[in-house]
Amino acid sequence: MDTKFSLFNQINSLCYWLLVSSDYRTSVKLDAENDTYSVCIKHCGVELYSNIIKGFSKRNATFLEHELDGMVAGLLHLKENVEHRSA
Length: 87
Prior knowledge:
By secondary structure, the protein is an alpha+beta fold. Helices cover 53% and strands 29% of the residues.
């Protein structure tokens, strides 16, 4: 379970970094009613990144870790692009 919390923290930290360090707009939602977890990144009104995990609470733990890991990888890629553009 610690790995999942670590991945959630990374996702939240990366989204926060993008929000304060660039002109990207971020949205992270855990929707208990619809049992979804989603991340969306927009730039100038255009969606650059979006990922939704449906059936979040029912996911196999290992599979969920892989999906969260994929979100982290996508957000790290955006962060690298922002840092490269700023340099």
